[in-house]
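Agenda item 2: flavin-adenine dinucleotide complex prediction
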Amino acid sequence: MTTLIGSAARSPLDAAARALANAMPPAEIAFDVPLASLGRWQIGGPADIVVTPTDAGSLALTLRLIADLGVPHIILGDGSNLLFDNAGFRGVVIRIGRAFDSLTLEDDGVVVAGAGWWVPSFVRHLINAGLSGAVHAIGIPGTLGGLVTMNGGSQRKGIGDNVLSVDVVDRHGMPRRLEHHELGYGYRRSRLQSGEHIVTAIRFRFERADPSALRREAIDILRSRRAKFPKVRANCGSVFVSDPKLYSLIGPPGLAIEKAGLKGFAIGDAQFSPEHANFIVNNDSARSQDVLALIALARSRVYDLTGIAMNAEVRHLSPDGTMRPAHEVAPAAG
Ligand SMILES: Cc1cc2nc3c(=O)[nH]c(=O)nc-3n(C[C@H](O)[C@H](O)[C@H](O)COP(=O)(O)OP(=O)(O)OC[C@H]3O[C@@H](n4cnc5c(N)ncnc54)[C@H](O)[C@@H]3O)c2cc1C
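Presented output:
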């Protein structure tokens, strides 16, 4: 993108670049940023503008400026569940980072935390405070905002069970509180995935427990994850969501992909991990199309085997800012 700072703006994106550059501290804004540098898969072309607000005020200001100009935006945590497209993104990426790191522990197991917390650090704080309910998330590499949006968890649990409410701002920068019943939680799903709201803080309730027992549980979980998951290559965790029907017929998605003969199979530099087939690893210079082709192939082969269509947990970002579960944009497998 050509930014026109200091001269007449030619398009809404140029106007947004100029308005944001004038309004934001330079450290909070960057242009032409490779999305590959913002996501765990290390895949993706350039994003025109990336804003990393350091407080609720600059977040609200960013949203107001781009809403007025009609420029698309997306919300990013640590990019650990996103497939960026090689064509990049024509809009504004708003990163909710570590600046959103408030933490208040109340007497009755209620915890209020900023959305930028790194999940493993947040869980460690809870363990030290003798609070149980989130230990299953100890190994999940993302922000708290991403976790509550994805209803992430492990051992068939989801963090949504502990969420009382979330503080959000809408696309015009207006703050609001959404209660648990408004969040539409399901397995790895929530209404927050619509992208209408940006989570800035979360109110949770946890149970009291013995910190030493919680520490032992956390160590066991981390040990079992280390044994199972790929260690070296860039990846975005589990690609497909577990499905109870598939589980009772054949097992988790990784086993289904393996039984379909695809464990270790590669297209370009994207490969079903030889260690855990529900992970797609980037061996060096994988492209978004390679990952999408693998997703389509696994879906079709597992469907032939079981009659069940697997759905992706990983979300794909289109150049126009549409974010959808990746199987919805994967081409039909040949
Ligand atoms: C090695 C590895 C292991 C993993 N293991 C697990 C696991 O065991 N269980 C599990 O559930 N997941 C797992 N994941 C996936 C991922 O870590 C989680 O989904 C994580 O919670 C995503 O957080 P994030 O900050 O990276 O979100 P991102 O990937 O940046 O975003 C994910 C979605 O959340 C939205 N979002 C992010 N932040 C906000 C916000 N503040 N407000 C509103 N929307 C927001 C984004 O727009 C996007 O739709 C794993 C990933 C990796 C790489």
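Discussion summary: DSSP finds eight helices and 18 strands in the chain.
Owner for follow-up: CH.
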